[in-house]
Amino acid sequence: MKKHKILRTIIELVVLFGLVFLLRIFIFNPVEVLGNSMEPTYHESDRLWQMTFVEPSRFDNVTFISPRNGKMLVKRVIGLPGDTIRYENDQLYINDKAYDEDYLDEFKVDMPDGEPLTPDFSLETLTATQTSTVTEGKYFVLGDNRQIADDSRYFGFVNQGDIKGVIFFRFFPLNKIGLQ
Q1: Catalytic residues
Q2: CB of 165 within 8 A of CB of 29?
Q3: Residue 9 covered by a domain
Q4: Which of 18, 70, 130, 171 has minimal Cβ neighbours within 10 Å of its Cβ?
């Protein structure tokens, strides 16, 4: 009888660790922020959790492999398939509707008078995209630190299949822990 309880406990622990391992590998993946292209939202070495089976929505922060160097990037989804995107006078327009980007306010305050955080562009004027709308099955992403971010303005659209996950939680640094 005692051997049966021990065997059952071992099996339960193996199943539990197996489920945790599968969740960790296939659903909740940790990500480390490299670089400062997402400041002020995320900083170098911030640690985040991402969900892998969630379709990105507008303004979600996502991870994907850089088309330039193969490193994992974190960027913000600005354009969804079929959207038109443009910036005029530091104002984002999606499908000709103006959108506020409160997450950029900290950087805009520090800009010299008259200098935009995000220079004017439209999808047609960017060498990397040269189309009027975001192509089906692709996303247009930008880094929050627009002055230095390597993003869709320079490497083009991100394929839907290349997106590894949607950020949902920051677990380090501890003073910034929480849902994103």
Answers
A1: 37, 75
A2: yes
A3: no
A4: 70
